[in-house]
Specification:
Chain B: It is found in: Cell membrane. The complex is a heterodimer of chains A (246) and B (409). Chain A has 246 residues and is of the alpha/beta class. Chain A contains ten helices and ten strands. Chain A has a six-stranded mixed β-sheet, with helices on both faces. In chain A, strands 2-1-4-5 form a four-stranded antiparallel β-sheet, covered by helices on one side. With 409 residues, chain B is an all-alpha fold. Chain B is built from 15 helices and four strands. In chain B, strand 3 and strand 4 form a beta hairpin. Classes of the chains: A alpha/beta (246), B mainly alpha (409). At the A-B interface, helix 2, helix 3 and helix 4 of A face helix 9 and helix 10 of B. The complex binds adenosine-5'-diphosphate (ADP) and magnesium ion. Adenosine-5'-diphosphate binds next to helix 1 of chain A.
Chain lengths: 246, 409
Amino acid sequence: MSALLEVSGVSVSFDGFKAINNLSFSIGEAELRAIIGPNGAGKTTFMDIVTGKTKPDEGKVLWGELSRNLLKMRESKIAQAGLGRKFQRPTVFEDQSVFDNLLMALKNPRGAFACLFYRPTRADRARVGELAEEVGLAAFLSRTSGELSHGQKQWLEIGMLLAQEPRLMLVDEPAAGMTLAEREHTTDLLVSLARTRAVVVVEHDMEFVRRLGCKVTVLHEGSVLAEGSIDHVTADPRVIEVYLGR
Amino acid sequence: MRQSFIARNPSVLIFLACLAVFTLAVTLMSHALGAEMISTSFIKTLGRTLCLCLVAIAMDLVWGYCGILSLGHFAFFGLGGYMIGMWLMYARTEIIVAESLANAAIPPTPDEVRDAIGSQIFGVVGSSDFPAIWAFAHSLPLQLALVVLVPGLLALVFGWLAFRSRVTGVYLSILTQAMTLALSLYLFQNESGLRGNNGLSGLQNLPGVEAGQDWISLWFLWASALALGLGYVLCAWVVSGKFGSVVRGIRDDEARVRFLGYSVEGYKLFIFTFTAIIAAVAGALYYPQAGIINPGEVAPIASIYLAVWVAIGGRGRLYGAVIGAAVVSLVSTWFTGGMVPSIPLGVYTVDWVDWWLVLLGLSFVLVTLFAPKGIGGLVDLVSARVAPDRHGADYGPDKGALREEEGRK
Ligand SMILES: Nc1ncnc2c1ncn2[C@@H]1O[C@H](COP(=O)(O)OP(=O)(O)O)[C@@H](O)[C@H]1O
Ligand SMILES: [Mg+2]
């Protein structure tokens, strides 16, 4: 099986505290995967490592057909290679309009000079319109994104992630702050996205994960505790003990 | 939705109009045109102020837009001045030497002329040899190229080292202060080849120009106004569009910009170098109007003043920087020029030449605390009155009512 992302034997510690401990994980093309685990299990730190924000003490992170070593690359190069990330706390550029936020994320050359002379083409504008439609912000394109509600900012960030057209999407707690209907929309969106690309969803809401209907990886104290279908992992006595049983 | 650059940035047109009116008015009131309403020295002050506005725009770009609090941009300003000053001094001395040697029995060889120029320029530092850095001083085009190249390269190398190692925030500010301090200490040495603490002088005289200072001051005023206008349009263009979006994104959350795939270091380096070049051009126009440049000009405090101007004027908007630089530097000339009467308090007399700095510091603190948008923020108050921002909300009670888009027309 050809893995898109292959993480093996990764460990990282902060001031002696092992946040990630000999973690191995792999995901193929067009696969949807949920990562669950109690608070502090190291889910966000895992994403930090894959996207180049945190350098691990040991281990390997390999990417794509050429098995490129992501640990040697800068954040911007990793993003250009096709890894997109949505943060746990919605992070959009608050003093810029929704349109500008989406345009900045749109897949286009990222260099300084290319950007300086860039003017949005008709196709780019149409694409931004489509994305805004998809995340329910079509009426808000000219609004400053700082004025959006928490849930709308989540959507905007999802829109920005889509605009990047990444091959692997890392989505950290997408449903936080969303209404029930929005959660359902989010699950549908994630499932349909995963038909054409790899998607990793971090979530601790079990119902949300169940609706995704995908393979689940349970993280605990920085390493994988169990992996399999949702029914399989929820039946695992160790998972029940550390996570569900509480 | 699609709008022209001017339509998206109406402030550019307003600014250019104000600048044109100002320049025209000053010209009409000048000595050169016989009006005698503004003294030649005040025209020079105004011309210099325009140059300070230009360097303030550069500062606003690097700090207000990109979030890099550089406290070293006056180093580039000063370097620009030194580069043009070298040609001005060389060419003028060359003319003087040629005149004095013209009556000699034997025509002087080129080497003798060069030696004579050397001893004229470097006599004050006890030398007569041309240091290597004066190699191009005889040529105006080459020295003009150096105005851009020397500060540009310094900024490029310094920025590359600093940004690549991800030095940010207060550490970067300290590093830029160290850079300008090091430059000024280096220039203070006689061995630097730029006449040590004497600096370069006599720069107000344009070699080979017969016109009087009344005309020269006007020419420089026009050149400064032109440079300011062009610089304003260029900077406004750079920060409009996607590049501006990315740059402001870097200011607000640089990690996020990285995860979108933009190389933050590259963008910072671009802005840092670009603004250093603008600062250098401003300096090259400033010092001929000041007449003299010495190492004190690039002292660390000068760059701090620059940040204070931009903060008082309102950072993050180009006209704010212009307003800040113009207001503070003109008011400063007024206070330190001894034109404000002292206030006798019986036991103590408040002498504004000394107390002006206290006043400036106080206004800086007050602006930072109570009006972070600076003087430029007043424009928001006015424009909010004129056209309330309704954020796309409809005017009337139902969908049939006038929409905002219609109302704007
Ligand atoms: N930069 C950091 N410095 C110190 N400790 C950190 C850092 N990042 C994460 N941690 C610690 O690592 C652990 C895992 O955190 P995190 O990955 O955010 O958990 P999760 O996202 O699963 O809730 C937590 O105990 C957290 O305090
Ligand atoms: Mg987390």
